[in-house]
Amino acid sequence: RSSSGSRTPRSRSRSRSRSRSRSRSDSRSRSRSRSSTSSSRRTPHRSTSTSRDRAHAAQERRPFRPEFKAHLELRGHAKPISQVRVSPDGRWIASASADGTAMIWDATTGAHIDTLVGHMAGVSCLAWSPDSETIATGSDDKAIRLWNRTTGDPAHAPLLGHHSYVYCLKFSPKGNMLASGSYDEAVFLWDVRAGRLMRSLPAHSDPVSGIDFCMDGTLVASCSTDGLIRIWDTATGQCLRTLVYVDNPAASSVCFSPNGRFVLASYTDSCMRLWDFINMPCTVKKTYQGHVNKNFSVGGCFGLLRVAFVASASEDGDIVLWDVKSKEILQRVERAHQGVCFWVDVHGETGTMVSCGQDGRIVVFRH
Description:
Elements: H1 15-61, E1 69-74, E2 81-86, E3 92-97, E4 101-106, E5 112-117, E6 123-128, E7 134-139, E8 144-148, E9 166-171, E10 177-182, E11 187-191, E12 196-201, E13 208-213, E14 219-224, E15 228-233, E16 239-244, E17 251-256, E18 262-267, E19 271-276, E20 283-289, E21 300-304, E22 308-313, E23 319-323, E24 329-333, E25 341-347, E26 352-357, E27 362-366
Antiparallel strand pairs: 1-27, 2-3, 3-4, 4-5, 6-7, 7-8, 9-10, 10-11, 11-12, 13-14, 14-15, 15-16, 17-18, 18-19, 19-20, 21-22, 22-23, 23-24, 25-26, 26-27
Keywords: Coiled coil, Repeat, WD repeat
GO molecular function: histone binding
Protein name: Mitochondrial division protein 1
């Protein structure tokens, strides 16, 4: 209340005016009181909102980290699984095993859809066509087989021509070509529709361990246990680049970056290296360390969620994810497999990561 409202009236003659004064004063006091009360009632709301805003802002500033967690475990193969891949549409998973079969699984439920039987020896590698309708498998029986994903039946007669184990496969972005790498040290380019060999590249002096197409299909990258990475023109078969690291460790897998400017290679000195092959001289821009790769061909790939990252399998059974730019380890999935983890594949649009290993298991992770 105001000070005038607290004084005692001295005479009746002034009581009316004082009454009015008190009335006005009380009114002002009550008005202030209501305003103060209303303000005090609103204050916690503003404070809570501000706290939430600050927390949200802090969360936005915090570096993003993938948080993949094991969601499904798929069993069915009788021997180690050498490779596993998610279909381009994210709906299916295909696996290749030393038991001589490939299997198709539902990526959402983990249900076993089909078993592809036809190879006479272990299946080392596989690839999905861009439309997710065809699966190519390569085997120690030297053959490449194409399968209809819907029916599980062969889509063509086997593609024959390699003189040793077929170790890596990749479809071109348009799906009209298939590249294969073999222990016979050659890279073959196949016409998928005609089922015939288009071009043979005498690529390396040791087994070809990895292969990939760039985003527009004009280039193929191959790597080998001879330590070389080579970039090929698919139209002419010309070798455009040869990438050699100083210590020349064996290379176990290779893939183009999503923007097509770099290639990522896994080496058996437990390093993954990101090469700039566009600008001469070709140089290593980033080196990613923290996994184990000394004795086996283990696979790595790029992934994209809110940030771009590199993922790799590891011989100690772990899966390791790095930030592409900072090289910081964003996540380590420890003991994803008992024994060697051979392969990891990431499908960013569905937030799915899959891995396979020596223990004959496929693990499906969700972000």
